[in-house]
Structures are given as C-alpha cells and as structure tokens.
Specification:
By secondary structure, the chain is of the alpha/beta class. The protein has 15 helices and 13 strands. 40% of the residues lie in helices and 13% in strands. Bound molecules: pyridoxal-5'-phosphate. The site of pyridoxal-5'-phosphate has 14 residues, from helix 4 and helix 5. The site of pyridoxal-5'-phosphate (PLP) has 14 residues, from helix 4 and helix 5.
Length: 398
C-alpha cells in the first residue's frame, strides 16, 4: 500500500463499498483527516485580500508561533516536510561521500532527503515493540563516512534521545529528528523539536496541524537556520522584502538552492492551526486511551508499546496482528480506513536498484511490517466512530 494511495483515498473516498438502493450509506472513516474551522478559513481569506501572498509577514508570524510552541530559538518554514528534510541535509553539508543512518520503518521521504544531496542512506533496524530506531543497530552501522543520524519519532513516540545523543557525541555526528509524526510529543519533559540539532515537521493534512502542504525545521543554531532560509530561496542570501527595505536590486546566490518557500496564506492557516494544537492533542490522547482500553484484554491484538519516559502524540495508532492482509481487506470493506505504515524503505524498488538493499538487512522491520495496521485516529473522530472501529476489529478477528 503506497502512501500516496492512502492520501488519495483519504481525499476522495467518502462512501465505502457498493451501497444498494434504499440501504443507508456507510460513512467511510479515514485513518487521518484535517480539521478546518471557519476561523481557519477567515484567516486564509484575509491574506488573500492583502498585499502579500508569499514571502510576507505571515511566514515570520507562523515561524515565531511555532518556535515559541516548541521552545527553540528558530523555526524555518518550507513548502513540505520533504523540503524540510532536504533543507536539513543541505544545512549540515551532506554530500556524495557521506552516509546518514536512517530507519527503514519510515516514509520514503526520510531516506530520499539524503539521496537528494548525493549521500547514502544506511538503513538501521527498529525495536519491534515501538518501531523506533534501535540505538545498538545505529552504533553497529557507523563507519568513517557516517555524518548524521535521522531519528524518526514513529507514530508520535519520541526516540530515545539521551542514548542517541551519547552516540552522536561519541562519534562526532549530527542528530536530526524526523518528527513529522510527533508534533506535541515530549521526551523526559522536553518538547520534540528541541531534542536534536535539527527537527523536521510536516503539515500535510494527515499530520497534527495542516497548511495543505508545508513543513518546518526547528533549531537553536543561528547558522543552520540561516543556511536553510537561503536554501528555500534559490540559495539567495537576502529575501525580496529585505532588498526592498535596503533599497537595492542586487542579490547574491551563494549556493544552489530551490524554491521551497511556503505562501502567506498557508502560513496564516498554520498560525491559526498552531493555536488549536493543544485541543487536537487532547482529543488524540482520548482516542488512543479508548483504543488502549478496548484492546487491553483482546487476544491477538498488540498495540505498540509506549515508554513511560515520553508523551506520545499519536499521529498513528498502530496495532500488530496476525493475518494483517485479511484484516486490512475486511476492515476496508466495512468502511474503516485502516492503513499500513510502512512498507520497509530498503525494499522499495528504487533502493534495491540504486543501493543494492534487499531482504535480511533489517529483520525486525521486515517481520513487523507484515503485522502492522494503522487504525483511524484524528481529532474530529467522535465516540461513535471509535466504537465502530473497535467493533469492526473485534468482528473480523473472531
Ligand atoms: C509526512 C512525512 C514526511 C514528508 O512530509 P510531506 O509534508 O508529505 O513532504 C516525512 N517523513 C515522515 C515520517 C512523514 O510522516
């Protein structure tokens, strides 16, 4: 099941299966969904009526609000989570000689960001109970070419950052967090976003808050922040607004960058959404709690383990089951938008072909991939929706 397929069904499929004439229509419950209110819409419209559609004041406001929420000095907004990963790899200077250790249990974009810079992603295995990168596996994969580790806070649970930090210190590596699942999560009372040298977020509609498409990188390092601001703007050292202020037409392109800018109307949406993050998180915890309770005594359903050291922000609620493929098909037929996150990246045709990866490289990832199923979880789910999912899972299991 490709991720794009999931996105597609989320956007377009409202009704499950064929509904015969006269039968009530079954509402399709997607695995994830944005929550947009009238005030979000008003915020976007106000920008559409203003002078600045892009590179204007809303971008900085959104960045500031995001940095304040997370607790870092800087936040750099870009056009997607993928662009954010690319910018992070640029900022730390990843190039063709370099290796970056990544988990294989992630969305392809995590590894692609390394490849965009000509570097090699080195796949490390995960802990089968959390699906988080296994620090011991990381250490075993370090070579003289290793430059960085990208930790993925899978499903919304932060990785073990104390242990990962001790590894990066010992080997002089950069620690990057792909926290596209984990906005609002905490590790030992510290917010995700301040735990790594650079932390990457996504604002795709399935994530905690949305800007349609969008991404952010948080950091306390002013040089890295400046490099990423340049990178999102063609590698040009000053933006349009600043040139206008200084009354000069001249600009300098000092590196090869991209147009990865976010628009002002997207930033207005982001700003409006950040304010709602606490209530969104609260509802995600309620839903996860209801699933936990429902499945605590159920035989054959194994939710992932969450460490007592963390606050899980539950982008996904993942269970491990036998006969996953049968469950997937039957639940989809019942209008439950279950999904699979993820097909191991090292087994994707591109990675096999380009990097020669194959079965056996990450045994835990390969084994657990066959068992995992993501159940619907999003703040606008009501208690009846949750009941429907729980009942459907129990029915197809028995
Ligand atoms: C969503 C996601 C991305 C990519 O974000 P986009 O905004 O869709 O480009 C990267 N990594 C992970 C783990 C994700 O879940």
């Amino acid at each position: 099941m490709s991720c794009m397929g999931a996105y597609h069904s989320l956007q377009s499929v409202q009704i499950a299966g064929p509904n015969r004439e006269g039968e009530p229509k079954i509402r399709y419950i997607p695995y994830a969904r944005q929550w947009i209110d009238e005030d979000d819409i008003k915020a976007v419209i106000a920008v559409l009526r203003s002078d600045w559609l892009t590179t204007g004041p809303m971008v900085e406001k959104f960045e500031q609000a995001f940095a304040d929420y997370v607790g870092t000095k800087y936040a750099v907004a870009v056009s997607s989570g993928t662009a954010a990963l690319h910018a992070a790899m640029f900022a730390i200077g990843i190039g063709p000689e370099d290796e970056v250790i990544v988990p294989s249990m992630t969305f392809v974009a995590t590894a692609n960001g390394v490849v965009f810079r000509g570097g090699s992603p080195i796949f490390a295995d995960v802990d089968p109970d959390t699906l988080l990168i296994d620090p011991q596996q990381v250490e075993e994969k370090i070579t003289s070419r290793t430059r960085a580790i990208i930790a993925v806070d899978y499903a919304g649970q932060p990785c073990d950052y104390d242990v990962l930090r001790s590894i990066t210190k010992k080997h002089d590596l950069v620690l990057i967090a792909d926290a596209c699942h984990a906005l609002g999560a905490q590790y030992k009372n510290k917010n995700v976003g301040m735990l790594a040298d650079l932390t990457v977020f996504s604002f795709h509609p399935v994530k905690h808050i949305t800007t349609g498409e969008g991404g952010m990188i948080t950091t306390d390092d002013p040089d890295l922040a400046e490099r990423m601001r340049r990178f999102r703007n063609h590698g040009i050292d000053a933006d349009h607004a600043r040139r206008a202020e200084q009354g000069t037409w001249r600009y300098e392109m000092t590196a090869l960058g991209y147009n990865y800018r976010i628009t002002d109307f997207q930033s207005a949406l982001g700003l409006s959404q950040v304010a709602k993050l606490p209530s969104f998180l609260h509802r995600r915890w309620e839903i996860a709690g209801m699933y936990d309770q429902a499945f605590a005594s159920a035989k054959g359903i194994n939710p992932l383990y969450t460490s007592p050291d963390v606050v899980n922000s539950y982008h996904l609620y993942v269970i491990r089951v036998k006969e996953r493929d049968r469950l997937f098909a039957q639940l989809r037929r019942k209008g439950i938008g279950v999904n699979v996150h993820y097909f191991p990246v090292h087994l994707q045709p591109y990675y096999r072909k380009t990097f020669g990866t194959s079965e056996g490289l990450c045994p835990n990832t390969e084994k657990v991939y066959k068992q995992i199923l993501s159940l619907p979880i999003f703040p606008q789910m009501n208690d009846n929706d949750i009941e429907r999912v729980v009942t459907a899972v129990e029915e197809v299991l028995n």
